[in-house]
Specification:
With 365 residues, the protein is an alpha/beta fold. It has 10 helices and 12 strands. α7 crosses α8.
Length: 365
């Protein structure tokens, strides 16, 4: 275990980092009241104008020193949501909770199903789902670093709520309970073995149904949260999905290695993107049109945002939907007026036919 002096040094270094600058282009609106909020978090939301009933919802958790707005600007999630017609929820940490703006993924009182920050995030989700008629089978969560670890908290404690999750430079659930332990795990020290990791996940809830799919992203040169943590996340989730230690397939996507685990009936349940040469951050490809480089938002020649959305069936691989207005934030609780930019019903019918066929073929969800 790290010494107290080492922990203090690391905390000072983290607090000395400059917060990500706020972009001018802001699609996000305040969610407003969403429940008792035991974790004392804030919440931002983007709901495209003309959002159809039974649309999907993506929950996005920023990293340390970031905000909902800066992470959205870097990752491009709200732009993708605007173009393809789904809602995005951005929980936001406060400095009163954590001086570095990190979600408290290692604090026992914040990572239980009905307590603290985890409970607040569930209340946000329930509020957005009720206000905007979200499809309860199409709720997903992703996050970076502490946000990635918190995404894993949500997946572990509420597996019935999420269809899938994407953990970027994150950590396995329940592996730390103090600040020194958190830094140890980030550096790869004291990581539990597979049986202990799987037990932590199984004991986090009483879930007995289907488990969320898991997408793991990590840079090979990440010196902040070392890549051994990606392997721990995979080990943690292998048990509930009943897959072997070795991946079923290994291929290359945009020049980076992707490992894939499948169930016995051929369903993709765990994927691991190994981002060669990348440090600590979210992998982006600005040439894709989504996201911009910034601290911890890194040009790796691959857009994690696009690939994650595609794996969740939120976007098709061959078309860009433009049937919702762009860049128009809606205050939650309001009823969006019809979009004058929407295509005629015949066009929408064709798109629905295509999407229904893709879903029937297992290519969209």
């Amino acid at each position: 275990m790290r010494s107290i002096s080492d922990t203090i040094t690391r905390l000072k270094k983290l607090r000395g980092l400059t917060p990500s600058p706020l972009p001018e282009n802001n699609r996000l609106a305040d969610l407003g009241l969403f429940g008792p909020n035991p974790g004392a978090l804030e919440a931002k939301v983007y709901v495209p104008k003309g959002l159809r009933p039974r649309s999907a919802l993506v929950v996005v958790l920023h990293g340390c020193t970031q905000t909902a707005l800066s992470y959205d600007h870097g990752s491009g999630w709200s732009q993708l949501a605007a173009e393809y017609g789904f809602a995005v929820l951005f929980p936001q940490q406060t400095r009163a909770n954590n001086p570095n703006g990190c979600f408290n993924w290692f604090v026992p009182a914040d990572i239980q199903a009905d307590q603290g920050e985890a409970a607040s995030i569930v209340q946000m989700i329930e509020t957005v789902a009720a206000r905007h008629d979200i499809d309860r089978t199409r709720i997903y969560v992703t996050g970076l670093s502490a946000g990635g670890a918190m995404a894993n908290v949500m997946l572990a404690t509420h597996p019935d709520l999420f269809a899938g999750g994407a953990i970027i430079a994150g950590l396995a659930y329940g592996t730390a309970a103090t600040v020194p332990e958190a830094f140890d795990r980030m550096r790869g020290h004291g990581l539990p073995a597979a049986p202990a990791l799987q037990s932590l996940l199984q004991n986090a809830s009483s879930h007995s149904g289907p488990w969320p799919t898991i997408s793991v992203w990590h840079g090979t040169k990440d010196a902040t949260v070392v890549a051994a943590n990606a392997l721990s996340i995979i080990e943690q989730w292998r048990g509930v999905h009943g897959v072997a230690a070795r991946p079923d397939t290994v291929d290359s996507v945009d020049g980076h290695t992707r490992q894939l685990w499948k169930t016995s009936d051929g369903q993709d349940v765990i994927e691991n993107f190994i981002i060669a040469g990348m440090g600590h951050g979210t992998p982006l490809d600005p040439s894709s049109g989504y996201g911009r480089t910034a601290p911890y938002m890194l040009d790796a020649g691959i857009s994690s945002t696009v690939h994650i959305a595609r794996s969740w069936g939120l976007i098709a691989s061959f078309e860009k939907r433009t049937d919702v207005e762009l860049d128009v934030p809606i205050q939650s609780g309001s009823n969006p007026p019809p979009s004058p930019a929407s295509p005629p019903p015949q066009t929408l019918g064709i798109q629905k036919t295509i999407e229904d066929a893709l879903r029937a073929a297992g290519l969209m969800k």
